[in-house]
Amino acid sequence: MNFLSHYYFDRYNTNSYEVLGSILPDLLKNADKSSNIFPEKDQDKFKQPHEIAILKGWKKHLDVDKLFHNASFFLEHQHQLKLKIKETLKDTPIKPFFAGHIAIELILDHLLLKHQKIDAAKLYFHLNAVSKNHITDFLNLNNAPEQEKFFKFFELFKKEQYLKSYIDVANISYALKRIFMRVWPNPLHPEQENKLTQVLIDYIFDIEEKFIIIFDEIERQLLDD
């Protein structure tokens, strides 16, 4: 879900296909949650430069995910957010652990924008620069199903550019609610939504001066690898 956090590690990359690859796993999951392809398991079939570039970005996504979700900063603040959100989610079907996990991801995306660590417009520039035919080549090599569904989502994703809106905390809360609604229909009433927004605002204030720690740590680990 954390598209902008993934893009942070490719913010200076000029290869649009690698940038696409770095968020493609999440794009596919957002388009169809049942989507499961594993290009990293059969790498020899990718021959063309655009295929190899997308694969490189894809593998980087997997590396970043592993480092991100095992980082002490992420684990600590995921847990703390879970505890702070727990009371607000009382009498709802939403799992506090799930809420804490998604909330810290969205908060970190918000803080990257707020502190101008990334330019979301550049991410969309890269996504608009890639060829649909080249993406289709990559997906076909992986026998990816529901491609029409994916491209419909992808075109809307590029058109709406909603990641830019994450600079506003209210939109982070709204995005969190929309993610909940993919699993549970109408799980929150307005009062709970307002309380959740306030929890996020308070937590952002608490970590604002130190959030970059996790990105610096992962960047060092990627360089070491």
Keywords:
70% helix; mainly alpha; 225 residues; 11 helices
Quickly count the domains.
Answer: 1
Q: Which structural class do the helices and strands define?
A: mainly alpha
* Overall strand count: 0
> How do the SSEs run, as a string of H and E?
HHHHHHHHHHH
As a percent range, the share of strand residues is under 5%
Mean pLDDT across all amino acids = 94
Fraction of residues in helix = over 70%
Q: Tell me, briefly, the overall form.
A: globular
Q: Compute the number of helices.
A: 11
Biggest sheet layout: none
N-to-C span:
24 Å
CA gyration radius, whole angstroms = 18 Å
Protein name: Acyl carrier protein phosphodiesterase
GO biological process, one term: fatty acid biosynthetic process
Pfam families: ACP_PD (PF04336)
Organism: Pedobacter aquae
Architecture overview:
The chain has 225 residues and is mainly alpha-helical. The protein has one domain (3-224). The protein has eleven helices and no strands. The protein has helices spanning 3-8, 16-31, 49-70, 72-86, 96-114, 120-129, 132-141, 147-160, 169-183, 190-207, 212-224. α2 (16-31) packs across α6. One of its GO terms (molecular function) is [acyl-carrier-protein] phosphodiesterase activity. This is Acyl carrier protein phosphodiesterase.
List the helices and strands and how they pair.
Layout: H1 3-8, H2 16-31, H3 49-70, H4 72-86, H5 96-114, H6 120-129, H7 132-141, H8 147-160, H9 169-183, H10 190-207, H11 212-224
Helix pairs in contact: 2-3, 2-6, 2-8, 3-7, 3-11, 4-5, 5-9, 9-10
How do you describe this structure in short?
This protein has one domain. It is 70% helix and 0% strand. The protein has helices spanning 3-8, 16-31, 49-70, 72-86, 96-114, 120-129, 132-141, 147-160, 169-183, 190-207, 212-224.
